[in-house]
Design brief:
Largest sheet of chain B: none
Structural class of chain B: mainly alpha
Oligomer: heterohexamer
Radius of gyration of chain B: 28 Å
Order of helices and strands of chain A: HHHHHHHHHHHHHHHHHHHH
Strand content of chain A: under 5%
Number of strands of chain B: 0
Strand content of chain B: under 5%
Distance between the termini of chain B: 59 Å
Bound molecules: sodium ion
Shape of chain A: globular
Shape of chain B: rod-shaped
Largest interface: A-B, 47 and 33 residues
Structural class of chain A: mainly alpha
Distance between the termini of chain A: 56 Å
Helix content of chain A: over 70%
């Protein structure tokens, strides 16, 4: 009898709290979005699963000695996992389109306005009772507008670890929603004629340019923004490994096995921050709202910047590719391509949109560095 | 000046400094690409890489004797198809 | 001269203890079984090698600062390595046969009697002078009957780390001996007619069933047995990654590179527990004996359960597949198939035996959870 | 009651509680499969996946022009053989 | 304004020290050697990159909490990374040529004179003011003559961590320079007739020999030199996994994904030791000079040993393969082959040179063990 | 005897002891190879492995019907070429 009582007391049913149940449903929602809706499944699936695991009563996944505790403190608190992901992403990134058309860097820069406007917005939310975002919190939230998962996780783990779960959920969800969020904004801000603009074919980019480029980016970051060097440095290492052509086995491992292993752990570790006390509050609603705002402003800024550039320069740019400046590689570039095809079925913008797309990755990393340097 | 106002001022400064910095940084990168990389590209153009494919072709020719082009095409297609599937699985 | 003396004093020959020599021979025996007899080589080879390394005098592999020390405390003491293996095994497991014929879950349940009977037997051994198994020890030993390596290692590392080496050796050895242990028991408990029973073809299982199944199993474990959620959770994560179809690169990494890396380390780490003081005692003999008993009882229970089910149900089950309920995937299922072919050369039981086989994995994990909850 | 007897009682209780629990747990799982999964299977049957193979066949046809079936069979066999070897090596 | 001032103070430009600039140039030099000159790129590329990262002002890559700090202390200070590399190298090594012609072990032994003579030379440098090498320092430097990267890193991390950066740079640079350093020495010490010697075809080596060989090597190391068992043990584990034929998936992972992942980290971690204070001093110059001496003496010893063996034995050995005894697998063997072809275009020495080549790996590991036992 | 001389003596001793040890160690290894491995090789010679290739050939024959040898050669060459490229990429 006693044994049965102990057994009963050790069941989940006898120990559930409401918050845990709700957070498990949130985890299930993330799994649903990942599996059924194909929302960034590589990260949302392990993240949703981690959210379920961390909220199991009695099991203690995120307490000292629990699996998710080890994963979080070894890999996310230290920043190692997002940096390794960034290295792998660097090894998958081709800067050719950007080097061929460097003007598109301005589009990637403009789209970062989504970040800084959202920072302002997060502070503005403090006017509403219930919100008390510090400047650190606001910075971590704002980086959602960078549309770059590892950057957001890295910054949040440094500036506002208690908001990490909500920020990661928002960042990846909106990245998956890019095909829904962006097109209306893009259509509203452009005329049919602008959307029809065809761009000149990109010039051939030589191997030496691609090899020197990551080193140049790193050098500039060292000069002007050392706080961004962890992110930019690992990204450039990955890109250099890819482009140099002499360490193909390392490059291949960085963009396959290593990034896969780290992705599983990163997702689980981020999911472990989706506890009821950290997630079920009004601040999460604020973060979700601000994230949507950030993406929208970033998209709009990119498009408007392209229109501005068309005013001052004779070489025309299709303003749709400005929207790709929010990064969300390669989704945003595909969206630009698709919206462009609606107006001109023979106008393939994909390659041109890759320029602002990867510029947006650099821009977000730079913005993250600025926030770390000034707020961190 | 109360606390919220101060936060607003700080956020505004951050926004301004941040956007200026981002534009400056990526702007210098444009100069870097136009001034440095472009010159490098002209000075060290990509070698016309025929050596590698040629070596391959030679080797294959030696090994495959008198096989008709469509057969070779079929093989290439089969191999590249498998290669694609394989890389997807990874 | 002095230098030569120091050199001599630093040789193994000058420092050997008898126990170390014997344990190295045990390590060599494990290597022999792995290489020449093909006994679970993936784990027994690194385990045997680890046993040799840990017993090298002077070298200090398992002392603070030694390689095996780091491996053991980072990966096994924390439970991380067995859980990652379990995730990989989950990503390799197909529950289709089980879902198509859920009755076979009873066979997997019955075979767990091997575990609990052995627990009783281990306590009974205390009647013999020299044995002093606590309830924790007995539970860790009993799980050998689960015929599941990572589960045994996980439980032993939590309940009786000093017995871990012997338990792992017994578990993997008997798993390799399944084709020798099981057939006589299976033949003794069944009639020729029973062995000839042909089973109905399994129905088609849809994708959604396979996706929902691991989530359902996890949910039930959360409700009723949170102590089993580390094992069941990681297993279900692996299985979900496999079945959902949207994270193939993660699934592939989990069942290839990641599990391979972890297997090397797990084997070495377990081998590091094969020290003379921990292994060369009468308790190890008891563990080896109890392990054999556990496998035999598990096999018999599975077969008898199938015969019982045939008594009460009209849809007949070939009792041979009951033996597959001990798990030892997929060896036990193959044994059932082979013994079945002896009686009826046209009766392929393999797919039917996969049902109880994977049910046995779940059953063992549940049993491990019960032991953790009640004894741990 | 001496220590050993007490251990026996505890072990017996464990055995009983454990087996009951295992059977109950896996029994509920049977119900879950029969009541939930089966209904899901009926409600969301697997789509008849012809799109993917068809696409492949089309592509291959386009690429391989007029090559005779045995050649194609040989290629498939060679590739699948290599694939097997390769997966073994892994 | 204040914000701008903080931003300026957080730039690299405002914080650079001269030493850091120089060390970054050293890092760039390593990258150049790796990419443009193909100097051991797998290690020199991450090492050069690590050197740049660790010298970035403000960023703190190698301070507590920095990425390179974690990598160094988790993987190099513990010795784990070099040992895992060694396991992978073992899994790539074929001892067939050595077993077929065991005499070549003497060539691998003779070449280790490069190590011990350099040890003497390093102590001799102490006569010059400015040099103050301890016996530990001298031992760590001398191992450069072993021409084996992981061995050098392992030994340096144990005996002289502050010299690790310079030692690793020297070891890998000279390994890459083997085709330039060795041929003049080989030609100077041999006559045209000697270089033309054709060697008997190697006998077939059976599988069982290859399986037992690593175990025999390990056994001897255990008996005579336990201090070398970490290196030799992991090497033999890798080799056993390769040769036994029953754990191909582990062997494949050890020589591909695992070694690739560890190589990236090892390079970065070693690079993190290339700080100005540790590298920019006269001792580094001494190390670079001694390294060149070590390679040259090792090469000469191997060649002279072969000539000596030809004096006392009737079965002739081409003395060029003696140079391969320094290891630097497989570069030195290729050099021997190439120099041989110059004198006799039909004489392919590659397979024969593989014998002393892999013997050199064992010899260096043994020498490292002796130094650890006597000096460590 | 000053400090440097002492270091020299120690280094000299190390050199001597080290070289003797290395030669002794690898020398015993020679004996091990000649006395132990060689006998093992004679006692347990490699089985003449025809089963595996044969099985493969059979399978291939069955599958490939009446395809002419050059085609098969071309396929093998294509596959082995791809295998090489693939292993290089790794
Ligand atoms: Na961005
Ligand atoms: Na089981
Ligand atoms: Na060497």
């Amino acid at each position: 009898m006693e044994s049965l009582h102990i057994l009963w007391m050790s069941t989940g049913l006898a120990n559930f709290e409401l918050g845990q149940v709700i957070m498990m449903l949130v985890g299930c929602l993330l799994l649903f979005l990942a599996i059924a809706k194909n929302f960034e499944p590589l990260l949302l699936l392990p993240m949703g699963f981690g959210a379920i695991l961390t909220n199991i009563p009695v099991a203690g996944f995120s307490e000292v000695g629990g699996l998710l505790h080890y994963i979080y403190y070894a890999g996310i608190d230290t920043g190692i996992f997002p940096l390794l992901i960034f290295m792998g992403v660097g090894a998958m990134t081709d800067f050719g389109a950007l080097i061929a058309n460097p003007k598109t860097l301005f589009l990637g820069a403009a789209a970062q306005f989504g970040i800084f406007a959202t920072l302002f917005g997060a502070i503005a939310l403090n006017a509403i009772p219930g919100f008390e975002f510090t400047l650190k919190d606001a910075s971590a939230i704002a980086i959602i507008g960078g549309a770059d998962g590892p950057t957001a996780i890295f910054l949040a783990s440094k500036l506002a670890p208690e908001l990490l779960g909500a920020i990661a959920v928002a960042a990846y969800s909106y990245m998956a929603l890019v095909p829904i969020i962006q097109p209306p904004i893009m259509r509203a801000l452009t005329t049919e004629d602008e959307r029809k603009i065809e761009m000149a074919q990109l010039r051939h980019v030589t191997k030496i340019e691609k090899v020197i480029f990551p080193l140049g980016v790193l050098l500039m970051t060292i000069f002007f923004l050392p706080a961004a060097t962890p992110l930019v440095g690992m990204f450039c290492l990955g890109n250099l490994m890819k482009e140099c052509g002499v360490v193909d086995r390392l490059s291949s491992t960085a963009q396959n096995e290593l990034i896969n292993i780290v992705t599983i752990f990163l997702g689980l570790g981020v999911g472990s921050k989706l506890s009821a006390e950290a997630f079920l509050n009004v601040e999460t609603l604020g973060i979700l709202a601000l994230g949507a705002v950030a993406f929208s402003i970033g998209t709009a800024s990119g498009v408007l910047m392209a229109k501005f550039m068309n005013k001052v320069s004779k070489e025309k740019v299709n303003p749709l590719i400005g929207a790709a400046g929010v990064s969300a590689v390669p989704m945003a570039a595909r969206v630009a391509n698709k919206v462009g095809l609606e107006s001109n079925p023979h106008n393939f913008l994909l390659m041109h949109a890759m320029g602002p797309n990867v510029a947006g990755v650099l821009g977000s990393a730079v913005a993250a560095g600025i926030l770390l340097a000034l707020v961190g | 000046m109360d606390n919220l106002t101060q936060l607003f001022v700080e956020a505004g400064t951050l926004m301004l400094a941040g956007m200026v910095f981002v534009f400056a940084f990526l702007g210098i990168l444009i100069i870097f690409i136009n001034k440095v990389l472009l010159k490098l590209a002209i000075k060290f153009p990509d070698p016309i890489i025929q050596s590698k494919p040629q070596r391959k072709t030679n080797k294959t020719n030696v090994e495959k004797g008198g096989i008709s082009p469509p057969v070779v095409a079929a093989i290439s297609s089969a191999v590249s198809q498998y290669r694609q599937q394989h890389s997807k699985n990874k």
